[in-house]
Design brief:
The complex is a heterodimer.
Chain A lengths: L6 H12 L6 H5 L9 E9 L4 H13 L2 E10 L15 E7 L8 H18 L4 E6 L4 H10 L4 E4 L1 H5 L12 H4 L5 H20 L5 E4 L10 H4 L8 H15 L3 E6 L3 H10 L12 E4 L4 H12 L6 E5 L2 H10 L4 E4 L4 H9 L11 H22 L3 H8 L2 E6 L5 H10 L3 E2 L7 H9 L3 E9 L4 E13 L2 E9 L9 H10 L9 E6 L6 H11 L8 E6 H4 L9 E4 L1
Parallel strand pairs in A: 1-2, 1-3, 3-4, 4-5, 6-7, 6-9, 7-8, 9-10, 11-18, 15-16
Antiparallel strand pairs in A: 11-13, 12-15, 13-14, 14-15, 16-17
Chain B lengths: L2 H16 L19 H15 L5 H4 L5 H13 L4
Classes of the chains: A alpha/beta, B mainly alpha.
Amino acid sequence: MSGASSPTSARLEAARVLFAERPTRLALAGVAIPSDPRRSVRIRVHRNHAIEPVLALAAPYLAYARISAEFEIGAYDDSLSFPSGPGEPLDATLVYLDLDRFERMTPDELATWLGGRVHVLRDENPAPIVVVAFGAAGRAEALRPALESVVDVFVVDPRSIAGAESIPHVDERALGVSGTRVANGLQGLLARELASSVLPALLLPPIKAIAIDLDETLVRGVLGEDGVDGVDLTAGHLALQTTLRDLRERGTFLALVSRNVESDVEALFRERDDFPLRWDDFSVRRVGWGSKSDALLEVARELRIAPDAVLFVDDNPGELFEVLEHVPGVDVVLASRDAEQTRRAIVHHPGVRKLRGSRDDALRVRDLAANREREDAARTHATREDYLRDLEVTITRRYDALDARDRIAELCRKTNQFNLALLRTSAVDVERRMASASSVVISATLDDRLSSSGTVAVVLATRVDDRLVVEELCVSCRALGRGLEDSLVLASLLDAPLAAGCTEIAFQVAHGDRNEPALRWIASHLGIDETPAPGLHTLSIERLRPSSRAAGVRFLAG
Amino acid sequence: MTPIELEAVVLSVLSAILRRPFEPGHDVVRADTHGWDSLKHVEIVFAVEEELGVEFPESVLGELDRASRFVSEAARILGAGGR
């Protein structure tokens, strides 16, 4: 164990304060976060009451999320006139409102007016917009439909963050000195929500899997010593397991990584019917006596995700240090004896929260489980064509499908391995491309008789004379490994109405940290062994056509 | 809490929020303290309230312009039975 006074120790200590039930200002002011590499972002704030006391509390949470944020805070402005900025790119916009200052408006009038202002803001800048709407109970929720109908707009209701906690929401007394009526206790919860959950969900790669220990983490006690009936499911552990089950249902993989005898652990989950989590809820299980870093790497490999998309949770600091030393990029949570603290540290960990669940998220876990059946099926068929036909593999192509806009943007933003141009385009840009006669947004869904993988491939292309220029090309990791990349991408591309009459396709190529699979794919079509240089690479359509449709796959137009 | 204990809490808040050490026995005055602006003042007020479990009345919030005023006001509230 290498650890005392290390940056890792400092992060673990910081987490203890940051994710306490009610962190105080004094405690937060004393949090020291190591100055490891951070993502620099610019966030513009439009507001009609003071956000500064909240941003002061948000600072250590942003540091923990490895975000270095520059906030451009406008003057108090009830009219939301949104003076145009100098045009520099933004990473996000915050609209920070006390809705009760608009008390002369009916809820419908406010929704219509504010919806109009948000549209203006949307046209001005493609960055995601977060509207923090503080006001009397129900006012923010009444606005949500009108505001969230605008692309990439998210409403945060500070009252809902407090949930059932009995803390004051309003402090009229402090308005004169603080410039806001948001009570101090609620400011702390709001700061944590914005800086640990909301902004990281918009700005950082997501956590795709939670790999968690068993003893003294998912339960109180040690299975090998206390036995199946001896380990304790405290109220905190019950809440922790319930939260993990909910995260799984929304598409986050769970993996169990435990030093135990596998048959004992399986018996525990089968026999303890008071456990919200079941044995099969873990997409990967690594129970044994090897190192946890090896187990983590196996978990990532089996889930087909990068190790830095895994959050590892364990009560033993030594295990955390061992994993951090050998698994690059992975992040960790030290499980506390108070399981409620562990639960908060997980749900508020940057990248765990998804602001908007989608059907595709929910499909992810089931689709991975089907992979094992697919692998079995692959072994029992003589030819690949027989295998694909027996599985009833179906690829459905769609052009400019507005209802898939958010999923398409998510794939562009979050796909790292099979992402050719790394354009990282926004939902706003996707929608603009859909409306343009010279561009096409292609999406492809993948289904077979075992499960639906949802929308797994995206191509953004623009027609330039008799050439189609592919400016973005992504395939989700959930579709990789099945040999269907050409069928997902090229068939949809060559069939696009915008491709009619084109003789060649130019692919924009960029180099990233992890997009080697996409680079290898284009290199194979270019007929070269080396990694293609960044820039445009042109191929004739006739050269691409033979590989564009795998035999045995059914192709449909959506 | 004794006045000395109250002063220790107030100084710990001032040190944490203003990011510099303040020693007991020397009053810290807002007008003479670089960085103690209106935004920091709000943070200081809220932090002292949290640490001492008090709520300063609206009428004095703007008058808490030195450590000793925080201490005397908190002592008055706590002496009267807290919030």
